[in-house]
């Protein structure tokens, strides 16, 4: 740990024990209220943030007692965003598929961000906090904005810590997705074991590619049925990398239908015309895990979004 006196304006923040396991980027977003995500990633990328005197990556997990160096940043006056639109709050209230004293689960609609940020006024977590004022709600994980399905929010700090620990364990949480892949996938189950490398572009946009220097990533694709020359699949993942299913599917030549970032533009155009598909056909359908040291099992399910059911019917 460095013993040099910090520069003027630099903050040295000791990580509380109850924040052990939190990602560094999420910790910084909490410390720098109102800071755009692009700014947070920029100060991380340029090495201005240090953990115990050393550079650290955005996804680094903190430990209780760690010392985080936060450089001075110039933030505009806090913007009072007011209340989230009533239509958003109504959609979120209707999307809650499970809750108990420890957590709640939302069947997140496509097009709604997990959280607000640069250019996005409100996401799921901001809306839920308005619906449940005074509750200490914390996101357990994230879904891409265009992906629908199960998103879990902790109602107690102890549940958040345990769930995040399970997320880091191989097999700690069983995740099942449903996806329409372009073209005819081989019958049976195809396992894609390819490392993924994430980069953050200027402006905070995330891009992921298959790269030998990336992190180990494993996805299992199983064809459930054929629809209109395409493959409706169940996908199970052993790891939870950013954009993992989308990049692995594209890598084997069968991108997720409706994927504007990694997909097939011509196939997407045909699916819009033939089946009315105007979004990414990727849905987080179920999660299985156990809390309280394995003594409290959970099996959470979220039905396929109506617009995806309609697209499948149109392709029959």
Task: Name the features.
rRNA processing, PsdUridine_synth_RluA-like_CS, 28% strand, 4-stranded antiparallel beta sheet, RNA binding, 23S rRNA pseudouridine(955/2504/2580) synthase activity, 10-stranded mixed beta sheet, Pseudouridine synthase, Structural Genomics Hypothetical 15.5 Kd Protein In mrcA-pckA Intergenic Region, Chain A
The CATH C-level class name of the largest domain: Alpha Beta
- CATH topology tier name of the largest domain: Pseudouridine synthase
Task: Sketch the major β-sheet.
Answer: 10 strands, mixed
Order of helices and strands: EHHEEEHEEHEEHEEEEEEHHEEH
**Mean pLDDT figure:** 89
* Shape, per Cα inertia axes: globular
Number of domains: 3
- Contiguous low-pLDDT stretches (5 residues minimum) are 1-6
Give a count of the beta strands, DSSP E runs of length 2 or more. Answer: 16
CATH-derived architecture of the largest domain:
2-Layer Sandwich
Active site: 144
Family: Belongs to the pseudouridine synthase RluA family.
GO molecular function: 23S rRNA pseudouridine(955/2504/2580) synthase activity; RNA binding
Pfam family, one: PseudoU_synth_2
């Amino acid at each position: 740990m460095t013993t040099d006196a910090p520069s003027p304006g630099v903050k040295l923040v000791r990580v509380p024990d109850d924040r052990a396991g939190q990602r560094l980027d999420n910790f910084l977003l909490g410390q720098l209220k109102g800071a755009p995500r692009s700014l947070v990633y920029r100060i991380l990328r340029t090495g201005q943030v240090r953990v115990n005197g050393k550079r650290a990556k955005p996804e680094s997990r903190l430990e209780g007692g760690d010392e985080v160096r936060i450089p001075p940043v110039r933030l505009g006056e806090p913007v009072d965003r007011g209340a989230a639109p009533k239509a958003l709050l109504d959609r979120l209230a209707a999307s809650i598929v499970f809750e108990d004293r420890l957590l709640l689960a939302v069947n997140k609609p496509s097009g709604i961000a997990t959280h607000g940020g640069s250019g996005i006024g409100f996401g799921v977590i901001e809306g839920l906090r308005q619906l449940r004022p005074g509750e200490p709600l914390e996101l357990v994980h994230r879904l891409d904005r265009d992906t629908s399905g199960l998103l879990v929010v902790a109602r107690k700090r102890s549940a958040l810590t345990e769930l995040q620990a399970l997320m880091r364990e191989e097999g700690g949480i069983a995740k099942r997705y449903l996806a329409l892949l372009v073209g005819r996938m081989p019958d049976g189950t195809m396992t894609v074991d390819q490392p993924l490398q994430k980069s953050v572009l200027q402006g905070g946009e995330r891009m992921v590619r298959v790269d030998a220097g990336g992190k180990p990533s494993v996805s299992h694709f199983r064809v459930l049925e054929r629809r209109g020359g395409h493959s409706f699949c169940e996908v199970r993942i052993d790891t939870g990398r950013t954009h993992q299913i989308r990049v692995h599917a594209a890598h084997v030549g069968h991108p997720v239908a409706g994927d504007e970032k990694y997909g097939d533009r011509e196939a997407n155009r045909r699916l819009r015309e033939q089946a009315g598909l105007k979004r990414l056909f990727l849905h987080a359908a179920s999660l299985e895990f156990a809390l309280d040291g394995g003594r409290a099992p959970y099996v959470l399910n979220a039905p396929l979004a109506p617009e995806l059911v309609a697209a499948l019917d149109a392709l029959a």
